[in-house]
Amino acid sequence: MTEPVGPAIARQRLHTYLRDRREAQGHTASAVAKKMRWSQSKLNRIENGVVTIQPIEVKALLEFYGVHDPDEVERLMDLSEISRERRWWREEKLSQEFKDFVAYESEASGLNGYFALFVPGLLQTPAYAQALSSPAIREAVADSTGMDLTEVRRKRQETLFDRLDGSRPPTLRMAIDEAVLLRPVGGGQVMADQLDHLLAVSRRPTVQLTVVPLALGAHGGLGGTFELLEFAGKQDESVVFIETAVDDFLLTEKTKTDTFRKIMDDLLSSGLSGSDATREIRAARRRLPG
To answer: In the prediction, which pLDDT does 3 show?
Structure first.
C-alpha cells in the first residue's frame, strides 16, 4: 500500500472501485452475481459498502472484470484484508450508522462539527458526559440497546488524543453555540471543569474552537447539530453524521455533504475564533465557582 488506511476508508475505496469497474464494462449486477454464483443482494451489499468481501473473492471478481495487473490485484486484495479488520466499535451495541461513523472518525484528517446543545462528545470531561447520561435524560429518550454511551465516548476520545499527539495529527474544528457555554450541565463545578478543559484543548496547534454568538441571529447551523469528516486521500469523499434521539444518519452523497461543508465554513467565518473564542469561554468560566 502506498499510504496507510484503516478499515473504513479501505472498504469505501474497494466498494467504489468494484462498482465503477462493473459499470464501466457494462455488466449488470444480476449478470455478475450469476457468474460469481452469488445472490444479487450480496453483490449489492458489497458495492454499497454494507458488507465486506474476502480477498479471494476480490481476486475472482477482478479476473472476471479483466483486471490482471498483479500490483493492482494485490492492492485491492490488501484493501479487502484491511476492510475486514475488527476494531473495538464493532463489538459495541451501536447502530450500524454509528459504528460506521466511529470508524470514519478514527481515520479522518479533518474533524468538523457544529454543536448547538452540548459540548462536542470528543471534548467532554467524564463528569460532563456522565451528567448528560443522567437518569432524567435516559428516561426522556429510552435506550433499548443497552449500550454504555459514556464508555463509547471515552474510547473515541482516547483514539482522538492519541492521534493528536502523533506525528500526523488531524485538524479539529468545532463550532459551539454560545448557549452551550452558559448551560451548567451537571452543576457549576462540573461546568467549570468542562470549560477549563475546552481552554486547554484550544491551545493545541491543530484544534480550532469557534463560538457561535447568540447575537448572530439566524444562521445555517440552526438546522441542527452535525459532524463533518474529511480525509487526506483525494479520492476519499467526506461524510456527514447526524445523531437524533431515535435514528442516526450517515450521509455520503456529495451534493449533501457539500451543503454541510458550506454551513460549516459559514459558521467558522461568522463565529468567534482564536483569542475571541477564548475570551468568550473565559467569560463563561468566570460566572462559575472555582
So the answer is: 62
Percent of residues, the chain, with pLDDT higher than 70: 94
The CA distance from 247 to 170, in Å, is 28
| Closest CA relative to residue 8, chosen from 103, 128, 92 | 103
Q: Which amino acid is at 110?
A: G
| Domain 7-85: CATH architecture, name and number where available | Orthogonal Bundle (1.10)
CB 170 within 8 A of CB 265: no
Side by side, which strands form the sheet with 239-243?
207-212, 171-177, 110-115, 226-230, 239-243, 248-251
Helix (H) or strand (E) holding 85: none
Question: According to the model, what pLDDT value does residue 145 have?
Answer: 45
Element (H, E) at 177: strand 171-177
Mean pLDDT of 59-65: 96
CA-CA distances (angstroms) from residue 75 to 5, 11, 14, 52, 247? 12, 13, 10, 16, 36
The more confident residue out of 246 and 154 is: 154
User: b/e for 110-122, b at 16 or more Cβ within 10 A?
Assistant: ebbbbbbebbbbb
Intervals of CATH 1.10.260.40 along the chain: 7-85
Where do the CATH 3.30.870 domains begin and end in the chain?
92-286
- The mean per-residue pLDDT over the stretch 152-181 comes to 96
CB atoms within 10 A of CB 172: 23
Please tell us whether the domain made up of 92-286 is placed in CATH 2.60.120.
no
Average pLDDT over all residues of the chain: 91
Count CB neighbours of 282 within 10 A: 14
The C-alpha cell of 115 is what?
454543536
C-alpha cell at 185: 450541565
Return the biggest CA–CA distance within the chain: 70
Query: Stretch 218-230: mean pLDDT, rounded?
Result: 95
